[in-house]
Structures are given as structure tokens and as C-alpha cells.
Amino acid sequence: MSDQDYTQEIIDFLGCECEVFRDLENDEQLIEKFNSYTEKGRTDGYIPVIILPSDILYEAFELALEDEGLDNTPGDIVKLRQSILTKADEVYVESFLADRLAEYGELHEGDDITGEFTEHEASHCFYSYYGCEGNKPAPVIILVKIPVKNPWEAAAWLPMGGFNDCPSPAQQVAVFRYWHAKYGAVPTVVTYDNWELELQKPPATPQTAEELAKEHFAFCYDRVMQGAQDRDTIRALAGELIHSTTWYFWWD
User: Fold this and answer.
1) Where are the alpha helices (DSSP H) in the chain?
2) Which pLDDT does position 164 carry in this prediction?
């Protein structure tokens, strides 16, 4: 399947207004449009999400339908979203994150995964849509206006996950809703194995940042275990999260 084919398949799956960007030299135009849509969406009832399209991402959408015994039709896609949202209501987020944190703690019993707090430069930009070389955006990017008022519902419209340690779409919806209440966090960028969120109320103290870092680790194991050498413990991650207005998650 060519990039043009799977890009169109993703657009058809979403069934709402999308804009395709090709061969950008930098992300200025994309971010300018994203910020404009973010502002307009507050009154017009939609949220913008940046998508890095791929055949793997589209396959994830198809698998989500198959898991529910649904077909790739507009009516069944709506049923899929409703099913994900219903399942999300059954997720008790604090227990979900606590259980995963305990599981990972047992996995690394005897290792110092807590570490020491060291403040790092805060993050205020997105990364996932850059190509492998990292010097310019990927050749094709989609900017979609998802017609929902609740930003956490984006994970039901873009159902990736459920592989390895990546939470299911329903679990993602529940956690994003929880973080939206606490931090004003909004899903902003998705790929087949990434989510990035933008937030309004980042933690401002080492204590609150450490609690958040534990949640990030529970939600995304690789956020710590495959982090940079100086950010491969919970407190080192907390030193990055303090004052940061963007969050990055990646699952192998």
C-alpha cells in the first residue's frame, strides 16, 4: 500500500475534515495551522490532532474493528468509538496505574529505578512527526479536526494500542480524561506507536512532578526504561516533566 493509499484510508476511516501536508521543510506552517484550529475548535466543537499516517496505523484501526466483530463501514466505525468510550468508563485509572507501577517495580526489584531528582530543560514542542533523520517533518502528515468537545475522546477516534505494554484505546481514553482533569492535558500527536499531549497546568514542584513521573512510567514503561541516560529513572523523568507543556510517549 502506497503512502497515498493509506493516507486516504485513514482519512476515510475518520470521516471528518482533514488537511494533508506534504514535504514540509519545517513544522512552522503545521504548528501555525494547529494552533489556529485549537483556538477555533474551542467554540466550534472540535479538537485538532496531528497524525503521522502509516500502513501500521491503518492496520491498527482495522484490527480494532475486527476485535469488536465490526466491519469497516461508517456505521460500524461509530459503534467502535462508542464501545471504546463505554469500556473507558469501566477503567478506574488510579488503580490501573498503581497496578502497572507495582508490576514494573517487581520486575526491577533490586534496581534503583527511583533515582535522584535532577531538573532538565522543559519540553514545549512535538517530536513524533519528524522523520528518521530528525531534521525535517515526515513526508506526509495529516491534521484532522475531530468533532468532539472532550479531547480525551481522540483516542477512541484514533484507536492504536493494545500491543505489548501499550494500553488499549479504552485505557488511553480513561487516562487522558484523568490527566485532562489534573493538568489540562490534551492529545495532540499520534503515530502507530506514539502519543504526544499538550497541557495547560504542568507540575510546578519536584513532589508533584515525581507523582506524575510515576504515572508516566506506569502508562509507558519505555518512557523510563528506554529514556536517555540522564533521564532513565523516575525522578530524572520528573526533572524533565516539571514546567513542561508537552508530553511524549513511545511504545516499542
Assistant:
1) 3-14, 28-44, 55-67, 74-88, 93-107, 154-157, 169-183, 206-219, 222-225, 234-241
2) 82
DSSP reduced 3-state for 128: coil
At 216, give phi and psi (nearest 5°): -65, -45
The C-alpha cell at 221 is 514503561
Phi then psi for residue 74, to 5 deg, are -55, -40
pLDDT digit string (tens) for 54-96?
999 999 999 999 999 999 999 999 999 999 999 999 999 999 9
Instruction: Give dist(CA 231, CA 244) in Å, integer.
Output: 14
The C-alpha cell of 198 is what?
Answer: 499538550
Of 97, 84, 98, nearest to 219 by C-alpha is: 97
Type of residue at 130: Y
Q: Which of 169, 240, 171, 148 is nearest to 203 (CA)?
A: 240
The CA-to-CA distance between both ends of the chain, in Å, stands at: 23
Q: 11 vs 20, 44, 196, CA distance in Å?
A: 9, 20, 20
The residue assigned the cell 494500542 is 161
